[in-house]
Design goal:
It holds the Pfam family Beta-lactamase. The chain is α+β, with helices and mostly antiparallel strands. It is built from twelve helices and 16 strands. Helices cover 29% and strands 17% of the residues. Helix 1 packs antiparallel against helix 12 and helix 2 packs parallel to helix 6.
């Protein structure tokens, strides 16, 4: 399945010549070697206004990016996991205010880091339990080992949890470890990007009685026709997967990063709800249309419209933004004027970030520079796929927003 342009752009408010600037601009990234290749899809009112590919999915083999190329989407898995959780919430299986220790007892009696070193951390008791909404909003006090900004991050790395978990660990075992490590902050008091969505994936498993991959397949992927989305690739499908790259520190050119990229060719023991999926533009386009249309696409409804509206409002304490509540470290979003909902960053005010976004736009991205956003006001979605990590290497996301909104002229 592929995503082809379905309408003349000017019929839905786009200037075709201005849309062509997208390809011209990002084509330069390929021409000078900063990216190996990319794919872009822009839609409005359910119609594809712009769909393009450029460059190579595998430089060494001379294979071009094609419409059905597969991409490691990493943290763009998080919105899928969040939708899965909210499907169970709609069934009354839990409340957002429930303590997660009801299903995951390893998260009872938590401790919070106060001071000290990695070798001798001093902790205090948590005064608030981790609740389901804390997982969805990254306000649980959990962290990521690869952040490298705090003592707690280093404790995660010492336990073997950096960019990838230990090879012999499953999701249940990982959550046991996370429950034993101190929290970075008291739950609900700050925002810290973290393994929270992996823990949410484990909660889905326990509540539903299914493994995370089975739940995704039965309840989301098959119903939506997302036939390309999977946890690993094998056989003939392996040739469709774009190679992973990182920037050469001397030249800035993208060079292969097979040490990490090759993990996609093996079935993972740990099903990461925070970053484990591989997908295609067509599949993730279907998923963004589901969100834009209030939980239904092509006659398949996964969520009620009110639930999607609940998910895409700012849930940070006191209506504050990420600029105020973030603990810092790696981020895939600007902070000022940006709130966080149940699985997405949410634009409360676009002015502090000096961007063209609409109020109420929601979005996220992956560490290999993939990104998406949904703008309900303009009935617009945009997708960008490439395979360069980290995502902070080049300002691809902000530049795509400039180019897309500059082409919207009605």
């Amino acid at each position: 399945m592929s995503v082809a342009r379905s309408i003349d752009p000017d019929q839905i408010g786009f200037d075709p010549a201005r849309l062509a600037r997208i390809d011209e601009h990002f084509g330069r990234y390929v021409d000078d070697g900063r990216l190996a290749g990319w794919q872009v899809v822009v839609t409005r009112r359910g119609e594809v206004a712009h769909s393009s590919t450029h460059g190579l999915r595998d430089r060494e083999a001379g294979l071009p990016v094609e419409a059905d190329t597969l991409w490691r989407i990493y943290s763009m898995t998080k919105p899928v996991t969040s939708v899965a959780a909210m499907m169970l919430w709609e069934e009354g299986r839990f409340e957002l205010t429930d303590e997660i220790s009801r299903w995951l007892p390893e998260f009872a009696d938590l401790r919070v880091y106060s001071k000290g070193s990695t070798l001798k951390p001093y902790t205090v008791p948590a005064v608030e339990p981790i609740r389901v909404w804390h997982l969805l909003t990254h306000t649980a006090g959990l962290t990521y080992g690869f952040m490298q900004t705090s003592v707690v991050d280093s404790l995660y790395r010492a336990a073997g949890y950096d960019l990838h978990p230990p090879a012999d660990v499953d999701l249940a075992t990982a959550c046991q470890v996370f429950g034993e490590l101190p929290l970075l902050f008291q739950p609900g008091t700050a925002w810290g990007y973290s393994v929270a969505t992996d823990v949410l994936g484990r909660l889905i498993e326990v509540v539903s009685g299914q493994s995370l991959d089975a739940f995704f397949a039965d309840r989301i992927l098959r119903p939506l026709g997302m036939t390309d989305t999977r946890w690993w690739v094998e056989g003939d499908e392996s040739a469709r997967l774009a190679a992973l790259h990182a920037p050469d520190p001397r030249t800035g050119r993208a060079v292969r990063f097979d040490k990490l990229g090759d993990a996609a060719y093996t079935k993972p023991m740990l099903l990461s709800g925070g970053g484990g999926l591989i997908s295609s533009a067509a599949d993730y386009h279907r998923f963004t249309q589901l969100l834009l249309r209030g939980g239904e696409v092509a006659g398949v409804r996964l969520l009620a419209p009110r639930t999607v509206r609940l998910m895409t409002r700012n849930h940070l304490p006191g209506g504050q933004d990420l600029g105020t509540l973030s603990t810092g470290g790696f981020a895939e979003t600007t902070f000022d004027g940006i709130g966080f909902g149940l699985g997405f960053a949410v634009v409360d005010d676009p002015i502090p970030s000096r961007g063209p976004s609409s109020v109420g736009e929601f979005y996220w991205g992956g560490v290999a520079s993939t990104a998406f956003w949904v703008d309900p006001t303009e009935e617009l979605t945009a997708l960008f796929f490439t395979q360069l990590m980290p995502s902070s290497t080049w300002p691809l996301r902000s530049q795509l927003r400039q180019l897309v909104y500059a082409a919207l002229v009605d």
